[in-house]
Amino acid sequence: MLPTPKKFKVVAGGAEGRSKLTAFDNALLKAGVGNVNLLKVSSILPPSCEFDADFVLPLGALTPIAYGSIVSDVPGETIAAAVAVGVPAEETMGVIMEFSGKCTKEEAETTIRKMVEEAFEVRNLELKEIKVCAVEHKVEKIGCAFAAAPLWY
Amino acid sequence: MLPTPKKFKVVAGGAEGRSKLTAFDNALLKAGVGNVNLLKVSSILPPSCEFDADFVLPLGALTPIAYGSIVSDVPGETIAAAVAVGVPAEETMGVIMEFSGKCTKEEAETTIRKMVEEAFEVRNLELKEIKVCAVEHKVEKIGCAFAAAPLWY
Amino acid sequence: MLPTPKKFKVVAGGAEGRSKLTAFDNALLKAGVGNVNLLKVSSILPPSCEFDADFVLPLGALTPIAYGSIVSDVPGETIAAAVAVGVPAEETMGVIMEFSGKCTKEEAETTIRKMVEEAFEVRNLELKEIKVCAVEHKVEKIGCAFAAAPLWY
């Protein structure tokens, strides 16, 4: 089987670019994950996967990551992305939620906390804490807001 | 290289949620894949990858999976998702197809069988059988239909 | 961690199908990646990952791949997809960009070269060369244009 990740952190970034994909690329760079290969996952915190703000991803590494992102080319529009990791009180898995939309950072954070709470409720799990990271970006020409939970070893 | 999967099954689930992502999460739980990390693949059945309805996915495992899903927030709407695995008559790879749409389970099944047949025809492969799994869901507020072929080791 | 890829190539294909997903499947076959499991990545060329036009992907292998694709069911429409790998002058990572749209092959190539140049500029990296692969397809009924950089070991 593929190895199960052992560490996570939460990151976010907003940026402009000359195209939609380069705006996304620039937002990844701001979030500190611009130089690795993102492997998008839907999105569970494995048991014993611990928070670690300091791990360094090797250049080009295949990096399992849960993320939300939004790109807009409407000048003046406010866009936001958020990620939240629900850490369980007991030794089991947690849940990661991603959100993006045309809203403020605060609205994105409020929304995503509710999503994690619902996911824990449905699983009859007790929450220890929620790690949230969100960003808002006001579009100049072509902008991207990106938030993610990279998982690592 | 990454290890090639050796087993597969087919699953499906429909559910409501308070948001689109939690509806998706709840549909995954109904389908029995809600507590792992889905790694979406486009979608070949590896040679010697065998049907096994009974394997258990470890919590949080990185799980290669082919899936189709649809989310709707139109009350009363019928949505459906289907997955089909074309198993070859000879010892070679097969093909996995995913489908989702605003239709019934029967329509989804009919559509997806044709897709697998086309994929085998194009490859000059003979079909041994098609494993299909489909689900339909009538939306109350925010609903999701999800069908998948998880691949495992 | 997951193993970091060591080789890459660039491929493209355009095709018709009886459904959108089988058009995509047929375009993959034309591009030579139709019999493996595509694991989509966003999209860095790892350091020391070398161009190799000749590697053969095992049937059903989990294949990290950066790709752009577009499907259209508008008869007569011209669609195009392009991929470009920016290879750095120094020993570090490069950047892979994907593009697809309703345009010609030449337009797709021009656009994607600019995207790679922007990504290198932002990172203060010097370009050694750009490997580009693009395709255009004129839709008969349901068509797909697909371009990709598969990464391998």
Automatic annotation (TrEMBL), chains A, B, C:
GO terms for biological process: L-arginine catabolic process. Keywords: Decarboxylase, Lyase, Pyruvate. The keyword Lyase applies. It holds the Pfam family PvlArgDC. GO terms for molecular function: arginine decarboxylase activity. Its cofactor is pyruvate. It catalyses: L-arginine + H(+) = agmatine + CO2. Its EC number is 4.1.1.19. SUPFAM superfamilies: Pyruvoyl-dependent histidine and arginine decarboxylases. PANTHER family: PYRUVOYL-DEPENDENT ARGININE DECARBOXYLASE. Belongs to the pyruvoyl-dependent arginine decarboxylase family. This is Pyruvoyl-dependent arginine decarboxylase AaxB. It comes from Desulfuribacillus stibiiarsenatis.
